[in-house]
Amino acid sequence: MLAFVIRRIMQSAAVMLAVALIAFLMFRFVGDPVNQMVGVDTPQDEVARLRESLGLNDPTIVQFGRFIWNALHFNFGVSYQFRQPVTQLLAERAPATLELAFTAAAFALFVGLIMGVYCALRRDSWLAQIFQAISLIGVSLPTFLIGILLIYLFAVVLGWLPSNGRGQVVKFGDWWTTGFLTTSGLRALILPAITLGLFQMTLIMRLVRAEMLEVMRTDYIKFAKARGLRTRSIHFGHALKNTLIPVITIAGLQLGSIIAFAIITETVFNWPGMGLLFLKAVQNVDIPIMAAYLMLIGFLFVLINLLVDLTYGLVDPRLRIAMRS
């Protein structure tokens, strides 16, 4: 098991090195950092001194090594637009994005799992047909349109929930903030979390339904029925457990996707997270923020994939034996 973990960590390090190379190439060759930092009337000798101080005259391999070293120390330079350290800007907005992403992922996994199991066990019922229709809507409609429809219905027409912003938050320590402990924070979280998690929910629901129907036709389920085991034990103790392997894979990858692609949802609901910051960086060609965001998303995907691989062994003993071998 330890050898498997070490091998996966080495593979993850190689992936991060490739992501760092892409981020460095974007940082180095997409525009000129000096032109973003100085004005039109800046003297050329001052521009030359600035290039020398930033190390832009060094060989490319030296600059890449410096970029890796700074990234290991969470140093991505200063934002061209905000004139603040990029690490500080991301840290200020990370709680909002992570809070939204994990809430959307929990909603997608919990509701999708329940709906998928119900549609598999009661596939001819009218409620299962409604769930199937909802899944088609969630897969077909784009995220921004779902967000706009939810805002129009629950914020404009009914007036139940706020249409934008994060609401009141509570601060812990120097940088972490949460809206879970306030009423306005929880109300502001509902619409963007549903918008962001609806596609993942429908994906998980349809996957669980298909896998559950496949498992229910296997021989060991028929044998369990022949032994006279209780229906609940067969459905949840045997069938559902063997359905979770692909669900864990999809849920893990979708969590990374939720964090990475929360940009649209944060834009629609004016959610003060990293996605909205990244969009502003793209609009203003703020390369340090773009490079740091790319590194952060790559690290999150690598970390989630590693945790998913380790979770396999907890769900399926056969995979745990294979990992040890």
At CATH level 2, the architecture of the largest domain is Orthogonal Bundle
CATH evolutionary superfamily of the largest domain: MetI-like
User: What is the helix/strand order?
Assistant: HHHHHHHEEHHHHHHH
Discrete helix count: 14
Protein model, in words:
A hairpin with a 3-residue loop joins β1 and β2. A two-stranded antiparallel sheet has the order 1-2. With 325 residues, it is mostly helical. It has two domains: 71 residues, no CATH class; 236 residues, MetI-like fold.
Give the structure's gist in a few sentences.
With 325 residues, the protein is mainly alpha-helical.
Task: Write the SSE topology.
Layout: H1 2-29, H2 33-37, H3 44-53, H4 60-72, H5 86-121, H6 126-140, H7 143-157, E1 170-172, E2 176-178, H8 183-215, H9 219-226, H10 231-260, H11 263-268, H12 274-283, H13 287-315, H14 317-324
Antiparallel strand pairs: 1-2
Helix pairs in contact: 1-4, 1-13, 5-6, 5-8, 5-10, 6-8, 7-8, 8-10, 10-13, 12-13, 13-14
What tags apply to this protein structure?
325 residues, MetI-like fold, two-stranded antiparallel sheet, mainly alpha, 2 domains, 76% helix, 14 helices
